[in-house]
Every structure is written in structure tokens, then in C-alpha cells.
């Protein structure tokens, strides 16, 4: 069973990306795919999605327990307040990391065990990123 999600699921849902950029000649199988307006970016390797990032207002990630008997769903939405986000996850427990992003050097709050990160600005969540795992 594959661990990562196939890129076809994203092209089926969002259409073809406006750009497919190779990271370097050293890693020819790694690409960054971008959709129009830069609202959706996907890091791929060998046809698999490694990470998906969006800063489109209203974009969301649903957190679901791995146990199918648990009927909980937590939604993280681009545009939600940090106070609302803290009702789901404690931002003080996140690792603050500086990365190169669409606007240059950006600070993101990462929750390593969830493979999830959020970008914050002016008390709001302005970006989400996650490494999706294929459902079994």
C-alpha cells in the first residue's frame, strides 16, 4: 500500500497546475507544482504528493483520528483566528520554523507529529501545509 497520495488526485480535483518547477538537477524527481495565483502549492516526488500548502482564504485541513470508531473532526481553516485555532491545537506547543516560501523567508508553526504547519499573521491563520498520507 502506498504511503503518500498520488498526484493524480490533485490534478483531478484542481486541474493541471500552471507551473511544474524542478527543484534542482541533483533531485530531478522532486518538483514544486503551483496553481494559478499561487493559492495552492504541492511538493511532489516521483508522482507522489509530499506536501501541500495553501494560503487561499477558506482553504481547510480536516484532522481526523486514525481510529474509525471515533467520530470527531477538527477543521483548520485559512482565515480563522489564532484563538479559534488554539481551541483545536495549542500554538505554544508548535515548533517555530523559518522557511523559504512564496513571499521570501516565512515563519511557520509546525506540529511534527501531525505533519501539519500553519502560518500566522495579525492574529489569524494565513496558510496551512500538510504532508498527506494515503488512506488504508
What percentage of the residues does DSSP assign to strands (E)?
over 45%
**Describe the biggest sheet?**
9 strands, antiparallel
Spell the H/E element sequence.
Answer: EHEEEEEEHEEEE
- Count of runs of 4 or more consecutive helical residues: 2
Question: Ranges with pLDDT <50 over ≥5 residues?
Answer: none
**Helix vs. strand class:** mainly beta
Morphology: globular
Report the span from N to C terminus: 7 Å
Radius of gyration (CA) equals: 15 Å
Mean pLDDT, to the nearest integer, reads: 88
Number of strands: 11
Helix coverage percent of residues? Answer: under 10%
Give a verbal description of the structure.
The chain has 136 residues and is mainly beta. The chain contains two helices and eleven strands; from the N terminus they run βαββββββαββββ. The longest helix has 7 residues, at 8-14.
